[in-house]
Amino acid sequence: MALYQEQSLKLYNSMTGEKEVFTPINEGNVGMYVCGPTVYSNVHLGNCRTFISFDLVFRYLKHLGYKVRYVRNITDAGHLENDADSGEDRIAKKARLEQIEPMEVVQKYTVDFHNILEKFNNLPPSIEPTATGHIVEQIEIIKTIIENGYAYEANGSVYFDVLKFNKDHQYGKLSGRAIEDMIANTRELTAQSDKRNPQDFALWKKAEPQHIMRWPSPWSDGFPGWHLECTVMSTKYLGEEFDIHGGGMDLKFPHHECEIAQGEAASGKSPVNYWLHANMLTLNGKKMAKSTGNFILPEQIFTGENDVLAKAFSPNVVRFFILQAHYRSILDFSSEALLGSEKGFNRLMDAYYSIDELPESEKTGFDLDQWIQSCYDAMNDDFNSPILIARLFDAVKNINTIREEKLGITSADKQKLKESMKAFMFDILGLKDETSEGNNDGEKLAGTIELLIKLRAEARSNKNFALSDQIRDQLLELGIQLKDGKDGTSFSLK
Ligand code: AMP
Ligand code: ZN
After folding, report:
1. Which ligand is closest in space to the CA of residue 226?
2. pLDDT, greater one: 361 or 484
3. Which CATH class is domain 282-428?
């Protein structure tokens, strides 16, 4: 029996505003689409929070035994500076400023994106399609939407007719906006606009002469509207109806609302069964965003080269900090919060690595199976990682009490406790096991420290105490503590 048959996963569906039991369209299989980055600059930590949130979802679904097809796109064309179809293309603008090809911009920041997510131990998606790789499909779907009567051509551009669509369907149902309010709140169209109504959005834009990213189409040499790529790529790889669609909260409107409208206008079917939205990371109480300059880059956190933090923090600690908040809560980034996370993270790891050495008893003095189920209950409740982490700290408390020989554990349960902590910490939360048990980076580190310990011992026997102290102090600065004992020198990672 697969684990998903034993565990009842509920997730919060932004469309209904309720936690619902998750039932995929095809038993045992999950199709999940998450809006990826617009690759015109380095991803900031806010972007990473959203991708880490969906990595948690991906990991948990896989852990439950589902076969997951996870599609996350790369936006490499069509995303204008302004959500209302105006301004320069973000990638083209960067290319102009840096005097390089748009595809060089795309390559550079896609590589950066992958590097950063790998440092955070995110699993790669199953398919990572690009907007420019799907221009043909985008043109085809525009033709269908025009044929179905929900889009019109004007001056070489094609717009989605929101009012017409709203007569037969409901535009605004995801973000809870009524079309009347949208009409009341939008500005009049400017004289040069080709739109019939200000709510309409572009499916295809005719390129101005200076616009370099352009493709031929039946309407003009131009480029697709930003919302269209996600409809096309989700349909192509997951079908007209699929299970989960995710993205940051800020994409609900207009982006996801437009995706629903496009999908329904093209196929008559509502594309997504469960909409998941991750909340924002804030800095100084405001949304972290490139456009306002209120952001921090992951690399600045890892190196400590920034004005916000007292010290550098590892990707593992930053990931742990992110997962200590539920994905639907706002999370504020600060030095104090990270210091707290680092302390907690070290306490958790320390307890985990001490399991092998725990004294064994005839009987286990606590209900291990119940504890394991409580961890699943946390994850089954809309991926509640902070509650899962609280449960892991319950285990830490037990481990420490066993260490003091005030609580018993059998040899078999010790193994079971270790296996389940490993599953929750590393497979599901996606923390990295940085010791030799987890990867051989740990072995290399241990080997290097042993070498330094040997060199320090030599320095001491040569009475070069300045050098031996320097080795000890500098290792300590790096978080590696040497302990001199009667059997030689040992070390621990702080
Ligand atoms: P973009 O590259 O701007 O399309 O953004 C990529 C992803 O990052 C989207 O899912 C956004 O919703 C998400 N995002 C942007 N800013 C933040 C933030 N401050 N906190 C969390 N997610 C964010
Ligand atoms: Zn999207």
Report:
1. 2
2. 361
3. mainly alpha
